[in-house]
Amino acid sequence: MRRVSRIAAAGVATAALAVTVSACGSSSTSSAGGSGKSKGIGLAYDIGGKGDQSFNDAAYAGFQKAEKAFGVSGRDVEPQDGETDADKVQRLETLAKAGYNPVIGVGFVYAPAVKEVAAKFPKVTFGIIDDNTIQAKNVTDLVFHEEESSYLAGVAAAKTTKKNHIGFVGGVDIPLIHKFEAGYIQGAKSVKPNIKIETQFLTQTPQEGGFASPDKGESAANGQIDAGADVIYHAAGLSGQGVIKAAAAHKVWAIGVDSDQYSQSALASYKNYILTSALKNVSGAVYDLAKSVIKDHKPLTGEIRGSLANDGVGLADSNPVFKNNADLQAALKKAEQGIKDGSIKVKTS
Description:
Structural class: alpha/beta
Number of helices: 11
Strand content: 15-25%
Helix content: 25-40%
Distance between the termini: 27 Å
Strand order of the largest sheet: 2-1-3-4-5-11
């Protein structure tokens, strides 16, 4: 079963300091960086920034891989607390003017900024992860079937729980995170129709810190564990570190997200309680877009969606307890095949 190996390998990020882009003096309506030649990759992180051991770090892994493979430099930029769309516009414009191509916004929160800046720099390719609302010749929408890997996470949770009681912690109450929740619940109930499932969203908006507050994640997980859950899946970015911490403290299972969190060095002290992680190949998406621009000179455009069928999503198998459970692996293989052949229709809400 090729469920994980390539994705998991791509998702390992190393720690390094981000280079901060200085603010530009004024906005330009021309393609100042626009010869099409690339100085390297421009990467603008989502809420939580680099070091989340999850979504942003997966993007950074792809960034690093492309730098090394194509012999180019890059610039990666951290978000600021309380920033506006105008701040994101300025950040993307600065990268484009400096000659970086492609310029990638890591997360749906960049949608308004990518739409605006891409129109000003038609010779620069822009990528946005987790948003498919922008339709422009120089924009690539890098999206995923998160519900498919979440379905497998639900199967894993239901096969592993000893209390017939599991949990889900979502970072923000938005449609994207509903996909994770829906797939997880459906997958779990496919194994145990009467399983009890706790669900909680940390905040209503990203600005309230749902993806960037480990303390909120820890508190939510503690509540679900106190209620009886013994496997908890999070889709909460940096906040998920708190979920994993709580699971380890109570010696119950956590299921990570986006990167292989069992293998993340910053989470090493909790690894024995990380059953698996629902992966999406953000690293590969960043690398492939960079390759199309820098090496192939044929930029990818339009919607590029990762799925189980193309190894864009999957489950990590780094934990030997997970990998060597024959009954669990058989159930996952059956579920994966059903999703691929269409006999299982995974819900998105």
